[in-house]
């Protein structure tokens, strides 16, 4: 056929979307024809293909105004129906000479191409919808994380005031009830501070390139670990914590971040173990790695929970007094990754152990 086109046909327009012209028909892409002068206008209404081998010999179209106006003898036009059932337009072709178009090969080919065009247009529409939805969700996520970061930052000032006030109260000559209340305030502010730290780290990790670290060539990790133990021991004064440290080689690491990781692991062990049990902590450094293990007795972690333990907002079985956001282990694993290390867990009916391993770097 000398001229073919993909046309958008509406109730008032015929617009060429794509053109193949070998007879100098003269219609460019984007060009329009008067709708009432086209057979496509009729196809829009009945949505059936129209095929003409020879206009002068066709009883239905030999006197039709369209072939007379545009000077063609052979014609084929197939409707393009979108997936939602809406009529888009037509795939049509004309030629000044007669042609044998009414055969399964030709009509099948045109129908197939019309379906492919409809499929492609549906795919483009779906892609456009998906891209808009993705952009919307990304904007929502950024706003949410910004809100979390700002909220966490603004909570720090009043929390610091509460914590300092609790410290001052505990030094006064209080009765037993006053001492107990001051301790509750102190313990609660400590837990809230941990939650805020985790929220800020989670938000900064989502907004940036993950948790950042600042390594020190010869970090005194033993001192930092002892400090964390002392801090948590004030919260759980009756708990027994056993340590076994062996630091023979310096470790290139971010001490503050590792202390944060250790604090999350130790607090987790204290929360999820029996009150009369012992928390066992081992740590050592060799010329190849730094290794830290926090082990506690308690319920075995279910297999289903193990698979998502280091994911944000994921929690295992939670007792009434064990509330949190489920970010502690996620933050700890991200700190391990930032050190090019790994944080793993094993859990049996007898013991649960979280193990940090960081390759030694000079």
From TrEMBL:
Keywords: Kinase, Phosphoprotein, Transferase, Two-component regulatory system. Residues 150-362 form the Histidine kinase domain. Its EC number is 2.7.13.3. Coiled coil: none annotated. CDD domains: HisKA. It catalyses: ATP + protein L-histidine = ADP + protein N-phospho-L-histidine. It is an enzyme of class 2 (transferase). SUPFAM superfamilies: ATPase domain of HSP90 chaperone/DNA topoisomerase II/histidine kinase, GAF domain-like, Homodimeric domain of signal transducing histidine kinase. Transmembrane segments: none annotated. This is histidine kinase.
């Amino acid at each position: 056929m000398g001229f073919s086109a993909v046309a958008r046909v509406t109730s008032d327009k015929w617009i060429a979307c794509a053109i193949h012209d070998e007879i100098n028909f003269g219609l460019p892409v984007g060009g329009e024809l008067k709708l009432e002068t086209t057979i496509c206008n009729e196809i829009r209404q009945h949505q059936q293909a129209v095929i003409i081998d020879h206009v002068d010999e066709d009883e239905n179209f030999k006197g039709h105004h369209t072939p007379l106006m545009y000077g063609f003898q052979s014609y084929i036009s197939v409707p393009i129906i979108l997936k939602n059932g809406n009529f888009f337009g037509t795939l049509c072709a004309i030629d000044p000479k007669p042609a044998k178009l009414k055969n399964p090969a030709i009509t099948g080919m045109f129908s197939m191409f019309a379906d492919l065009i409809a499929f492609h247009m549906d795919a483009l529409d779906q892609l456009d919808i998906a891209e808009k939805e993705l952009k919307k969700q990304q904007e929502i996520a950024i706003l949410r994380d910004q809100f979390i970061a700002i909220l966490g930052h603004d909570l720090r000032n009043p929390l610091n005031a509460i914590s300092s006030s609790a410290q001052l109260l505990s030094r006064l000559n209080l009765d037993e009830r006053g001492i107990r209340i001051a301790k509750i305030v102190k313990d609660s502010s400590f837990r809230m501070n941990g939650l805020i730290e985790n929220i800020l780290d989670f938000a900064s990790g989502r907004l940036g390139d993950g948790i950042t670290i600042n390594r020190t060539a010869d970090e005194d990790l033993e001192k930092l670990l002892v400090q964390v133990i002392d801090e948590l021991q004030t919260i759980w004064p009756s708990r027994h914590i056993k340590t076994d440290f062996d630091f023979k080689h310096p470790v290139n690491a971010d001490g503050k971040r590792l202390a944060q990781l250790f604090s999350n692991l130790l607090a987790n062990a204290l929360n999820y173990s029996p009150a009369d049990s012992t928390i066992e902590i081992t740590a050592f450094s060799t010329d190849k790695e730094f290794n830290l293990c926090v082990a506690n007795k308690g319920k075995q972690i279910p297999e289903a929970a193990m698979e998502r333990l280091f994911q944000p907002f994921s929690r295992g079985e939670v007792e009434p007094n064990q509330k949190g956001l489920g970010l502690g282990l996620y933050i700890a694993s991200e700190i391990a990754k930032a050190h090019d290390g790994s944080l793993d867990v094993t859990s049996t009916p007898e013991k649960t152990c979280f193990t940090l391993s960081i390759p030694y770097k000079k």
